[in-house]
Amino acid sequence: MTTPNGYSINSTRSDESEDEEPLIENDAAHPQCCSTRLNLAILMSLGFAVVYALRVNLSVAMVVMVNTTDPEPAKNSSVFHACPLQPGMENTSDHIAQPAGVPQYLWDSETQGWLLGAFFFGYLCTQIPGGYLAGHYGGSIFLGLGVLGTAALTLLTPLAAQMGSYWLFALRALEGFGEGVTFPAMMAMWARWAPPLERSRLMALSGSGSNFGAFLALPLTGYICQTLGWPAVFYICGGAGCIWSIFWFALVYDDPRTHRRISEEERDYIINSIGPQGTGHGWSVPLASMLLSVPLWAVILAQMCSNWSYYTLLTSLPTYMDLILHFDLQSNGFLSALPYLGAWIVSNLSGVAADYLIERRVYSVTVVRKLFTILGLLPAAGCLVAVSYVGCDHILTITFLTLSTSIGGVTAAGIYMNQIDIAPRYAGFLLGFTNTFGTIPGVLAPIVTGYFTEDHTLAGWRKVFWLAAGINVGGALVYTLFGSGKIQPWAITEEDRLEAEKKRSRSISA
User: Fold this and answer.
1) Phi and psi torsions of 66, nearest 5°
2) Among 48, 194, 343, 344, who pairs with 409 as Cys (CB 3.0-4.6 Å)?
3) Are 415 and 479 contacting, i.e. CB atoms less than 8 angstroms apart?
4) Nearest CA-CA partner of 95 in 82, 110, 106
């Protein structure tokens, strides 16, 4: 960021520590309100809301897509309930009626787990290529096509389910394949658009759209399933993604330098703030140095640990609400959504708070990222442990689950934007790299949950929550010991060094 003495916050200065880097004076910053970069963050946030609606709709729809959890129960056997049925439900059937002509399927718990995890098999494949290409060409085309492609495939979900579980698995994997480029493309775009002192709040706002999407999709999916039938869920979500794509391609540009409607003052402010790191990385990347980077592996491991609990709840919470707590479908969707409303609010507040601490130089970037990661992971783990021991108490269960995911939103200003701190130019590629590993829990968590909860007992679910909590603690420990917020030496090119020397010479001559 350009400062009174001519330096950018991303410039290389070997004689100064991270805490001594000069920051821009407040009166030199272009106002964020109604700015092009804020409009980009809002549109991006809406896009990720659609992305997560496309991702989680199956979690709720699954409750009515199957007409029983055990397709072939033994004759004359009684149905076991881990928790007592709510008043008025004693004589009701677990079967949820659908409009005439809407099919339901005989999928056991293991099959459901595989179908819920199928998305992430494809999602794994395009993270790194998407981040690499977005860093070279710009992220807007990849983010737009990722959402559009996933939305179009979602429209085919009812047909694939009718053809069989293998076809549905393949379709969900293809959806993940298309959506895998979206988050790396977002990071590549913010490397060119986000002034360093606004990174936390801009990126938290755009990324928090995923939580907002989950908050909207979970209850709406339940309502649509009961009124219109589960196929309508996929038609509506897919259509929303296609409509969003039209606005995205019409309004968004890869770089402030090429944007046709941005003001000259804002364009100059962004370009000068980011410095030479705000350009594409070309075809070559320092891959060997990245693979040996301890701070990068700290991000990878911490993100994997955080994602385990997030994906466990994202994919399995509706099932827990249905089979253990016995909420009806509409209540199930609403209560499953509450944690993500909390996470959306907390992640945006944490982004503002992190930028304030960095701008006021209360803490260094490294300390801020570690602080927000610890505050997001450890209390959330404690809440998951508490859930495993409150048993069938509906109020306490909902309270602790909501607190766990809401508090987890604090990490939005921690590990989830650390890639752009340690290597701004390669941020998109790094996010693809870290997200590839971070997606592994999305594949494994539903399968492991299905394995632990085959008998639908509280003891099985206790194992699920304890495992997620322990993994959270491990992630916080690893990142605290090895994380960093400094630009890594391998991320600084000779061009960066020459630019820094030129600015230093101009400052001295002035």
Assistant:
1) -100, 140
2) 343
3) yes
4) 106
What does the alpha-carbon distance between residue 95 and residue 89 come to, in Å, rounded to a whole number? Answer: 12
Task: Using the Cα atoms of residue 123, residue 129, residue 135 and residue 138 in order, give the sign of their dihedral.
Answer: negative
- Between CA 104 and CA 64 the distance in angstroms is 7
Which of 267, 304, 406 minimizes the C-alpha distance to 347? 406
Tokens coding 359: 């701008």
Instruction: Give the model's confidence band at 304: pLDDT under 50 very low, under 70 low, under 90 confident, else very high.
Output: very high
Phi then psi dihedrals of residue 105, to 5 deg:
-125, 155
CA dist 160 and 170 (Å) reads 9
Question: Do you know the residue count of the chain?
Answer: 510
Structure tokens at 161: 């389910």
Please state, in angstroms and rounded to a whole number, the distance separating the CA atoms of residues 344 and 215: 9
Mapped to the 3 state alphabet, what secondary structure does 352-411 carry?
HHHHHHHHCCCCCHHHHHHHHHHHHHHHHHHHHHHHCCCCCCHHHHHHHHHHHHHHHHHH
Q: How far is CA 28 from CA 184, 203, 237, in A?
A: 30, 21, 43
- CB–CB of 248/144 below 8 Å? yes
Digit-coded pLDDT (tens) for 168-222: 999 999 999 998 899 889 888 888 888 888 888 898 899 889 889 988 887 888 7
Tokens matching residue 329: 């479908």
C-alpha span between 293 and 287 (Å, rounded): 10
Amino acid making up residue 410: V
